[in-house]
Amino acid sequence: LRGTCIIAELGTGGAFRKLPALARNNPPPRSLTDWANALNNFFDSAAATANFGDGGPAPGLVRTHLPNLSGTVAGAFDQVRLRTFKKGDRVYRSPSADEFGNLEPFDTPGSWFATRRTATKSGTEAQLNVSKWGNPLQELRVYEFIENVTVYFGRVAGGTGYQILIPKDIFARDVLKFIPPPTALK
Asked: Does pLDDT of 52 surpass 50?
């Protein structure tokens, strides 16, 4: 356990030393979900402030290999391959909604994006085949890469468009910026 903590301390740039302040400055979690969210927020902020030498992002955003996809994730592609998007490239997202109908926040998009802009609900559905996942098809958002990033890429299974999937170890919000305004789908 001690070795694991030392490695985690080095990997987070010393963030574990900040745990006592985190505990003092935040209310105690009331549920397992609160605990999980608190830990995710802590590790997200720790990774964001970790020192990687030149002050730049964590290494490894451009890759020659990603883990194989499986199950429904792999089945969402007709054929999947790797593609590196360059800083400034744009992708598109029809945001998901929670059980109350609230669309996901602009600054925390999911991991799936389209490579082509759409303007209508029927066009978005034809390209991306997203209604089966509960997507409300309300609007289209534009995001721009702020880093070069290797992603999963391929034709949408059951659709006519192409999609990308940001790898699990990368948060979309860390490599993409929202370009306002969103476009309402007609």
From this structure: no
Q: Which of 117, 66, 115, 65 is nearest to 89 (CA)?
A: 115
pLDDT in tens, 132-163: 888 999 999 999 999 999 999 999 999 999 99
In 3D space, the residue among 134, 158, 138, 143 whose CA is nearest the CA of residue 94 turns out to be 138
The single-letter DSSP state of residue 97 is: B
Burial (CB count within 10 angstroms: exposed 0-12, middle 13-18, buried 19+), residue 130: buried
Q: Assign 18 to helix, strand or coil.
A: helix
In three-state secondary structure terms, 133 is helix
Matching residue, tokens 């799936």: 112
Phi, psi angles (nearest 5°) of residue 181: -90, 165
Q: What is the pLDDT of residues 61-98, one digit of tens each?
A: 999 999 999 999 999 999 999 999 999 999 999 999 99
> Does an H or E element contain 2, and which?
helix 2-11
